[in-house]
Every structure is written in C-alpha cells, then in structure tokens.
Amino acid sequence: MPPPSISHPPAKPPEPPADDSDSDSDLDIDLEELDPEPTPAADQSRTGLLRHSRNSSSAAPEQRPPRIALRTLRMSGLRRGAKRNGYGELGSSHAGANEDHDPFSRDADSADRRYSDGSARGDDAPLLSRHSRSPVRRRGSFASDKLRRVGLRLPSFMSGSAAHHSNEAPEEDEEEEELQKDEDDPSSSRLVAVGSSQSTRFPPNIVSNAKYTAWSFLPVTLYNEFSFFFNMYFLLVALSQAIPALRIGYLSTYIAPLAFVLVITLGKEAYDDIQRRRRDNEANSEEYTVLRFDEPGRPGAPQPMRKMKSAHARKRGRKIVAQTDRLSDIQEEEEQAEGYGARRPSFIVSEVSKKSRDLRVGDVVKLSKGHRVPADVVILKCLSNEPAATAYEEEAEQQEEPLLLDHATATGEGSSSATPPAADPGAGAAEGGSNGETFIRTDQLDGETDWKLRLASPLSQNLATEELVRLRVTGGKPDKKVNEFVGTLELLPSRQDAMSTDSFSADNGSGVQAAPLSIDNTAWANTVIASHATTLAVIIYTGPQTRSALSTSPSRSKTGLLEYEINSLTKILCFLTLALSIILVALEGFSNTEGNVWYVKIMRFLVLFSTIVPISLRVNLDMGKSVYSWFIQRDPGMPGAVVRTSTIPEDLGRIEYLLSDKTGTLTQNEMEMRKIHVGTVSYATDAMDEVATYVRQGLQLATSSPDVHALVTPSTSHSSAAGASATRTRREIGSRVRDVVLALALCHNVTPTTEEDDEGRLVRSYQASSPDEIAIVRWTESVGLRLASRDRKNMVLESTHTGRPVVKVRILDIFPFTSEGKRMGIIVQFYPQMSRGAPPPLGDGSEIWFYQKGADTVMSAIVAANDWLDEETANMAREGLRTLVVGRKRLSAAEYREFSARYQEASLAISGREQGMQAVVSRYLERDLELLGVTGVEDKLQRDVKPSLELLRNAGIKIWMLTGDKVETARCVAVSSKLVARGQYIHTVAKLRRKDAARENLDLLRSKTDACLLIDGESLGLYLTHFRSDFISTAVQLPTVVACRCSPTQKAEVARLIKTYTRKRVCCIGDGGNDVSMIQAADVGVGIVGKEGRQASLAADFSITQFCHLTKLLVWHGRNSYKRSAKLAQFVIHRGLIIAVCQTMYSIALHFEPEGLYKDWLLVGYATVYTAMPVLSLVLDKDVDEELASLYPELYKELTTGRSLSYRTFFVWVLVSVYQGCLIQGLAQVLTEVDGPRMVAVSYTALVLNELLMVAVEITTWHWVMVVSIVATFVMFVGSVPFLGRYFDLGFLLTIGFYWRVAAILAMSLIPTYAAKVIRRTMKPPSYRKVQGI
C-alpha cells in the first residue's frame, strides 16, 4: 500500500499578490508548514535510512534562516509535495538545514535555477494559493481557479460533470468513438488527457499546401479561367453558334478550340496541385514513436516492460555511450527492500509507430535529436542520453553535493556510506537522470537562430512514465502567438479522472496537484529537437490549429502580370472587332436583306471577326510556360530546382523588389571565430597557432607541478620554463592571451555532450542557446582549452595537449544574455587543486572572479578606460564580424557576500524586481572591469552570396532583408554580405513607441535617400499601424531595408504593402516555416531546400537549393521567359488579326455581306496544323547567351519597364497585320477573282506562307527545332493540298499563274516589313545588339 499523500498547495503562474501583507506572510512561513512531518504509517513505509535522513534534515530548527528565497521554497515544495505520486525526495532538503552550513549555497542554488531556465522569472509568484490558507467553502475547480487568475476563459463543460471515457476499447472501435465525440470549439480553452482518448473531436494532424479540394477544383478553376475577358468572349461566341441565324460553318469550329484550351489549362492546374498533395503526403507520412498505455489485465496488452532506462538512448541506429544509472539501481534496491519488486505496475508502456497524419491530441510522442516536432506539444519529460563521466568527473562528483544524495551526507551529519533516499517505485527520475531540460531550434517558426531552452514541468519530470496518464493539461484556445502560452498541468488520482471533464480541487488529501505551464514548457510544430536528450511530449494542438498553420496564410492561385497585360490588349481587340462590325453594317446603310436584319448582321460579323481575339493565344502561352518550366528544372547549373507553380515563369523577368530571409537563406547559420584582439596584438585565422602556443605555455603549471592535482587559476604565474627565453613583452602578451582564452572558456551557457558515431568513435558536440557561444567554445578547444564537463554547479576544463583537467570552477551566479542587456556574465570560484572533499571555503584567499562578455555598445561603459576598444570593434564591424567584448573583475569573499545579500534582497522585491536586480549587478560588478579582449565571430554566408546580391542590385532589383533575428546580427550580416555598401549610412530605428519619434525618423529618412534603413519589429508594427502610407512611400525609395525581429505575419504584410503601393512585381525568398506567409503573399515565391526543412520549399512557386541560383533563375530564365512570351503573344495576335483583315476585305468586296472567307477546316487548320508549330518554336528564341546575360545584368533592368509587350509594340503589330492582310486579300482578289476557289487558293496559300516566313524573320537565334518545325509545317501544307478540293481549284494550282501570283503577293507583303525592321535596328539598335557588338 502506498504511503498516504502529503498535501501541498500547488504552484501558480507568476502574479503579484493582492497586498503587501500577503507577500510578507509568504516569506515568514515556517518550513514545517511547507513540509509537514509524515504520519507514522508513512514513516514506517520507508527504510530506516530515510527516517534518519528526515530526522537529520529537521534536527536543528533553531538554525533555520528566518527568511528563505521564494524560488527555493517553491522548487523544493514542488518536490516534497509529490511524494505520493512518485517524486521521491529529490532535492527535498535543498532549502533545509544544509543551507545553514554554507550561506552561499542558497545563492548557488538560485544561480543554478537562473541557469536552467535562462532567467529568474516567476520569483514573485505567491508561495501558497489563497484558498489553501482559508476554509474551503465549496468544491471548486483548481484548473478554473488557476486559469481565472491568468486570464483564460474555461468552457462551460468544465464546470459540470461528465461521463468518464476510456481508451481501453479495441483499436477497431476508434472510428466509432471519434464520431461520438463532441466537435472542438476553437474559440474556447481545452482539456487534454495525457495518453488517453479525448472526449472532444479535434482536427487531424494534416499539413496541406494544396490549392483545391475534389469539390472546389472545377468551380474555382473555371471561375479563374472565365474571369479572363477573352475566355468569356470565346464562350459567348461558341454559345452563339447554337442560334441558327448566327451559325457560320460547323459548330465544332468554335467549341473545340475553347474546350481544348480549358482541358489544357485545367489539366496543368490539376497536375500542379497533385504534385503539391504528393509532397504534403511525404510530410504527413513521416513516422513518429508514440507511447501507448495499457492496463496489465487488458486482453492483448503487452507484457510489462522495463524500458525507458536506456531504450530512449537508441536513436535511428546510432549508439549512445552507456551511462551508469545510479538512481535506477537505487530504485531497484529499495523496491527489493520494501517489497515493491513484485508489485504490478499500474500501466504498461509500449511504443507504437504512427504516421504524422495519424497523431491525435493527447498522444505522448517520443522525440530525439533532429526530430521535427509534428504538432504543438507540451513537454512532459526529458530523459538524458549523456555518456558516462570521465574518471576525473566522477572523482569530482564524489566531493560535491549530489542532487540525489541527502545534504546530511555532504555536511557530515550522516554516515559516509549513507544510501540515497529511496524513490517511489514509479519514480520518473530513475528513467533518465535528466534535469528536465532540452533545447529546440525554432528557425522555421520565428527565424531566430538561437537554440531555445525548454523545460519539463517538475510535476511530470519526476513522475514515472507509466503514471503519465494521470496527467491532464488545460490550455488556451488556438492562436498564432508563438511566444506566448498559459496553461495548467494537473496530476489527478486516476486515469479516469484525467479523462473526465470534471473539476477537481487541490484540497488536502484529495491527491490532486497542479503546476503552471508557460511558453518554456512547450515546443511548437516545425521546431526541431536540438538536444541529445529524449523528450516525451503530449500533443495539445494539431493540424490547422497549430501555431505554424495559424501563422500561414492559405494558398492562393497566382496570375502573372503578362496575363493581365494580354487581358487588357484583348479588350482593345474586342473593341476593334465590334467597331469594325458596326462600321461595315453602317457602310451598307443598316439595310435589311432577306432573312437578315442589320443587328443580326452585326452579330454575324462579330463571329466572323472572332479570330481577332485568338483563342489559341492561351494554348500557346500555356505550352510556352511548360517549356520554360522544363528548362528551369533541367538546368545543370541549378541542380534540384523545382517549378511548383508553372503559370508565372514570365514574372521572374519582371522582379523589382526582392524580400529575403537571413537565416539559412543568406547565411548558413554556422558560426566561426575569425579574429581576436588582446589590446596590443590581433590574431586572425592564420595566427591561431601562436595563440595555441601561448595557451599551452600558460597551462604548463598543471602538468609540470609535483602536485598532480594542481589546477590553473587566473593568479597562477606564467610558466617560468616558457618565459626563460622570452622577452618581458612576450610574457605579458602570453599572459593576456591565456586570460582571454580562459575567460571565453568559462563565460558561456554551453554544455558538452559526447556520443558514438556509426563507426564507434566518440564525437564531442556542444549544446547552447546561441550558435555564437558554441563557435567560441569550439575555438577555445582548437587553441588548447576544452570544456570537458559542466553541470549546474561546476565546470571542468581540460588541456587538449595532455588530456588532463587544468581548470575547475564552482559556478556561483549566472546572468544570462537578454536582448535588452546585450551581455552575459558569470561569477565563478576557482578550485586550487583537483582533490576529493568539499568545495574550497569562501575565505579571504578564495579566487572569485566575475567574467562578462557583451556587445561593444554596452561594454564600453563597463570596462576600464582604454584607447583601443572603439577602433577595433569598428574595424571588425566593417568586416561584418559579430563582436563581443570580454572583461573580468576579481571579487573578495567579503565583496561577494555583500553582493549576494543585496542581490537576494532585490530578487524578493514584489515591484521593480528586474530593475532592482540589475541595479545591484551594475553597482557591485559592472564597474571598471579589466578589458581582456575583443572577439570577432563570422556567420558564414551561403555560397556566392556577395556576387549574387551585387548582380541583382545591378539588375535594378531593390533588396530587403526581413529576419526574426536580433538587430546586431542583422546588421553584421547586412555588412558582411555587402547588402550594405562600404561606407553607406545605416539608419537604425529600434524600440519606437511614440508617434512623434516615428515621424522624426521618417523626416530624416526622406532627406537621406541613399541610406540603409535598419528597423526592428516593434517599430515596424508602429509604422504599419499609424504611418502605413508614409512609411512605405519613404522605404521604397531606399536602396536597402533591413527589418529584424519580424513576425511571419509582419513579413507577409510588408510584401503585400509593397505590391499594393508600388504595383511592381515582388519576389520573396526564404527557407523556413516562418517564411511561408511571406512567400505566399509575394507575386513570386522562391523556397530554398536546406537545413531548416522543406516547408518553405513546398509552399513556394519555385524551389532552389542555393541562394546563388536565384540570379540565374531571374536574370537568365526569367528574362528569357518574359521576352519569349511577349514575342509569342504578339505574334499570335498578329496571326489572328491578319486573317480578320482578309475577311474584312472580302466582306467589303461582297457589298458588306457577312459571309465567311475561310470556312470549316481552313479556319481551324490555319490556327493549328499550318502555323502552330513554327509560332510555338519562338519559345526557343534568345537574343543573348547566358554568359552575356550575367555579365550585363542591366539587360534585365530594361524588362521591368514592360517594353517588350506594351501598347506601342502592340499597335506596331496591328499596323503590320492590317498592311499585310489588306495586301494579301486585295491582290488576290485583283489578280484572280472577287469570289471563287481560285481566289481562295491564292489568298490562303499566300497567308500561310506569309506566316511561316514572318516567323523566320522574327527569330534572333536559330535553333534546330525551329528549322524542323518550319520545314515540317510547309511539307504538311503541301501534302494536304490535294485534300482541299472542296475549297481550292486544284487544277489552277498546277498552273504557272498560281505560283507567280503567290510569289508577287509575298514579296510585296514581306519585303517592306523586313526592310523597316532592318532600318530601325540600324538607326536605334536594341540593348542586346549593343552588348553583342562589344
């Protein structure tokens, strides 16, 4: 029988108490109120050692300090309050008697907690909830009470009782259960039972980038097609043939071309969407491991498994170094001693594999390093995969105060062979020995490159895995706020309680416990696990309700600018058709003939002239787009390129604004230490060997000393052996180099990890929230000082030369980096030697040092006066390096005690806590630091980024960089990538909150049109809200804009704003999930397939693998696509217009009667068999080769004006068509007859040959396909003539008179046209002719 529970008031989200008296009472609570003595029954259920430990830890009540840090009370209270639920007594006496023996252990503990979560947040949370200190009047909901305080609204079903549900039904009944569930209300909060089926039906976990569904495909695509004027025009013309009075020729003559166009277009759209669905299916089919919880007695349940000790260490075949699990051994011994060994577990945990689409809310997912998080989850447990410590680390652990051992042992109050306290049989800590920490990468979500620290709630971290089903999560409604989450985690007596919607109160003896959840306990979909630890997490939001999906705008059908331009020209042609029809009827005097009234004649003329609006134009353009897409995907210079939207390749040649992401797009997100300056000398990449020599000499004391345990401290003199032959200056430089390397090796938040690769070799890697810190730690390793181990209290450095530990420090305080402070600090106490025993006392001889590194803007006021810092940081910044200034200060024991007391006092303040704590740090630590040096870290750029950006700028494209990263990082990358020219003024706008200040910055920018604007997300939001038009009108005039700390929504809004204001083509390029909204909002979206996954690539119109491929995509393929389509469109219009002119001449000759000149097959054959191939071959034409196009990007710039297809060029082609049509039909009628088969034969033959020769005249660069198409078409025409006896006089075709008439007509039609073209090219050659002549 398990021991009775010990009630403990649950922790609450941070909130200020109602009055000061309330907070004071929290501070003066006696420890007995927080940790009451267990009953005798409970005491007897534990071993005698445990009773001794309990008595020892509470033996001296008079030694307790009167006031204890709230964070200490809260953390230890959470641990004590969970004894019944398997917490054991982990850390139960951290706030107990042992703190009296070392007044600094409390400070170290607080420092540890600051290190674990990255901040000191939550310290102002009231220790006890209000209702726990007063009689309970009613049985209320703990969850509703918690959420009411933090501002969440609970749905009505949480206040009533509901039937208990269970997921114990067989799996084949799951679908029936799903149908019986209530629909989820996305506007309300939700209750999620961990590891069980839910009473509410939530949306499936499916990713979809498809534009259409099976039901919406036809309506949407047909609407899009007939929204274009000329498609609607031809639909009306085709429908008019159902009226007998308007019918001319066969009905199929007009229906078939329209149907063919629609089939081609709809087929292409369907193919594109099927491809999107296929790629989505790949993402939705990704396999994940899910934990299944079965009752031991259930039929078919798996056998009990002793897993999770090391099972989580297996990851995709990669072997992790085995770790001795001390706590597991302790647990087994205690189980045998207490009779728990034979106890049947409450639930049996097994692992099942599920596809991403099959994951449901409530599933417990097992994630390892490199896994993409498939849905929004709350982290329950982090199980460490760390390898066994080295020998000296184990030796160091024996002298420390282990988390799993009683303080009594460390302080000498118990036996030296005391065994750690036993855990409950289900103690979760036995399964991993982790501290509940994991790191995630959020590049795809918010664009930030720093790793984020995430924590498992202590309530679930210390719970046995098989008991996780007793947990219930209360979360808010789905929203798009990726940096906010408020929820509650409840531990209930049974699984049925967790599955119900009943409210439970945390009354004494109820067995209900709860803990608050925040953003630190979550991982959103599309983030990536970065730690080696195995993470167990419960899914709370799936599919369209995830943060990632809510931040992404739905896919939309994109239409190219060329389509709109052709649509406008078509309206002009339609107007010409109507005007011509009315004029012809008017010239006849609107007279009525037998069977035809004047308005019917107008309608018949409209049908006859319908070729003026060529329906084949869409077919030719769509086939051309397919050819362009084929060229892009088969280009050997762009391996891996994919065209996902094949309707807009011409827009690639019209781009004027490029909006680019930074991380993974311009940069590789790989940091490298490039330079270090120590005041008198600077070391770059080539000189790092000299730094390594200095470090090796500086560490020789530890290896040459008679005391094998001696360690190096900052006060250790430089090796005399090394200095015997060195000058004094060289010894000083060596000492400075050693000091700065030592500072860099200690001042960070990096944790080393070790694992085996596939070949069995040990590979060391590092985990940290910032890639900058990892780069610096890797550099210190490369010069001789390796970070060997680190925990919350200690850090060990070893020499890479000897492999032995040379430095060991005790971590007293850590001050994490913040975007406001822009600096990071640490206080350490150096060990004089590597020996067993307690840490060195904080006496007068203690070496306590404060190290700090940060941005030069803040550190210049903190370090002592010097004459070189500003100059060197400016030099590094010009090189695009991210600079960090490093300083240190030695503290005496008395100084540290005074600082610690004041800092502790400030940390307990209810109001102004953060400011007070920072004031203490500034007063006692951040004054006159010794300046050690400056480091320069480079964020490696993608291949050929610099020349690519320069080429794009020369092509007339204005480049904006939109990133979620920090201001300093964005500035450095903008400089290093040459996005900002050398010497160009950078105007920084950050943290604007007042409208008047925003207005002043706009006025300044208007006067500096050659400046680069660097703006953060907060200021950008202010401008977009209050000065939208003024801001965008100013920003688009600037050559470069860099926006940092941008949310995905802001990126998309900027893209839409530029499009709306400028009416220019905007291209957006990115590689992460946070870029999807921007990519979809752009006219052209380009996704890069890279380290951050495929999400941006899947949602983009074009996918490439390198940023440098963008230049070829735009300058070569984009330019060719636009120019070819422009020439093709105009030639197709010419082809339709010339036959309409011939028809007009024929109708005039027939006294304005609406009779058809070419009927049936002649009309259809002209637009298909006899001219289609040569005209379509124009898509292979090119005016310059690829090398010239890249060498002269200015050729691209002239395309943005749209001169290739403009009203001017359009009317030139109209004049050519009118001239040639009048000449061909007029001469045919003059030289033969007005109406008859001879005239038709001469006119039609001259018309077809004229078009073939016009194609040849228009070609700039010949391709063998063009030759074949022209010759083959001519042969097909000649071969089909014998079958045209219904229309031609075949006997006349065999006479010489037919040939000289055709030749004369062609000469008069083509020679003047070609001569005019040659003269124009000579007088005013186009740009491509100029560069060809260079």
From TrEMBL:
Gene3D superfamilies for this protein: Calcium-transporting ATPase, cytoplasmic domain N, Calcium-transporting ATPase, cytoplasmic transduction domain A, Calcium-transporting ATPase, transmembrane domain, HAD superfamily/HAD-like
Span list, region Disordered: 1-141, 159-196, 294-314, 410-440
Transmembrane segments: 254-271, 572-590, 602-621, 1128-1149, 1161-1180, 1210-1228, 1264-1284, 1290-1315
Keywords: ATP-binding, Magnesium, Membrane, Metal-binding, Nucleotide-binding, Translocase, Transmembrane, Transmembrane helix
SUPFAM superfamilies given in the database record: Calcium ATPase, transduction domain A, Calcium ATPase, transmembrane domain M, HAD-like, Metal cation-transporting ATPase, ATP-binding domain N
Class in the EC hierarchy, top level: translocase
Bias kind Basic residues: ranges: 130-140
Keyword check for Magnesium: yes
Calcium found in the keyword field: no
Domain P-type ATPase C-terminal, residue spans: 1098-1325
Compositionally biased spans, kind Low complexity: 414-428
The enzyme's E.C. designation: 7.6.2.1
Record-linked InterPro entries: ATPase_P-typ_cyto_dom_N (IPR023299), ATPase_P-typ_P_site (IPR018303), ATPase_P-typ_TM_dom_sf (IPR023298), ATPase_P-typ_transduc_dom_A_sf (IPR008250), HAD-like_sf (IPR036412), HAD_sf (IPR023214), P-type_ATPase_IV (IPR006539), P-type_ATPase_N (IPR032631)
Protein origin, superkingdom: Eukaryota
Topological category with respect to the lipid bilayer: Multi-pass membrane protein
Ranges annotated as biased composition (Pro residues): 1-16
Compositionally biased intervals (Basic and acidic residues): 97-124
Principal subcellular localization: membrane
Family: Belongs to the cation transport ATPase (P-type) (TC 3.A.3) family. Type IV subfamily.
Name of the molecule in the record: Phospholipid-transporting ATPase
Naturally occurring in which organism (per UniProt): Humicola insolens
